[in-house]
Protein 1
Amino acid sequence: MAVQILLNLLIAVIWMFLSNDWSAPRFTVGYLIGALFIGILNRFWPHDFYLKRMWAVIRLLALFMKELLLSGLAVIRQILRPRLNVRPGIFALETRLQSDWEVTLLACLITLTPGTLTLDVSRDGRILYIHAMDIQDAAQLSEQIKGSFEKAIMEVTR
């Protein structure tokens, strides 16, 4: 992947050199030409095209921002009600993530989302214990986390 990035930057610099224009727009055009060139020749590389992973990172950030906004609004809605109608609880989330980095990222994303908090991680890193402000159905909440954050993390790291 690093070779693809360096090659893309080299193509952009060569494009600027051949055009005798060292401006940012010329670099951008050269970079896009390099990305297109590397994308076309992707089948000859042992790794996936590096922009796919960058796109996965952007999607993960967008997913987090969406969840942050939605859960923030849900917490505000609960706070502004005259009577609290919440059922707080702790549930165990069994994850398919393997590396410590993946599990840590998931735990941080859960903790940064309003209304949820990662309390503990099992020794083997397979189970996260999560406190949620309002649990209607623990199984449904687990599937929601697995279908969103866990899936997006696996797309970024694998």
Protein 2
Amino acid sequence: MLVEQAASNSKEQFANSPDLNKALIDAIMETLEAHQIMSHQALNSARVRSGLKEILLEPAQLYEALRERSAPLRTNK
């Protein structure tokens, strides 16, 4: 439905579409629900928390990224 509206309306008309507003609210609500479910899973499972930490430290390279950001702090001491 939004694709058809984008194709047949101006950007301003599309931006004011009630369908766009509904789709936005629906997406926000779905995201909120998904985040709540994932948060509950992580809070209730040491295994999930451990897996998340492993992802952050290895493929996401959290330590390296934070270390790089802190370089000016370390050189000023």
